[in-house]
Amino acid sequence: MSYLETLAPERAEGDVAAMYRRQEAHFGYLPNYARAFGHRPEVMSRWAALQATIRRHVSPRRFELVTLAAARALGNTYCALAHARALAQLLGMDATLAVVADEEGVLSEAERAIMAFAAKVARRAPEVGAEDIATLRGHGLGDDEIFDIVAVVAARAFFTRLLDGLGVEADAAFRELPDALTGPLTVGRPIAMDSV
Question: pTM for this one?
Answer without folding.
Answer: 0.94
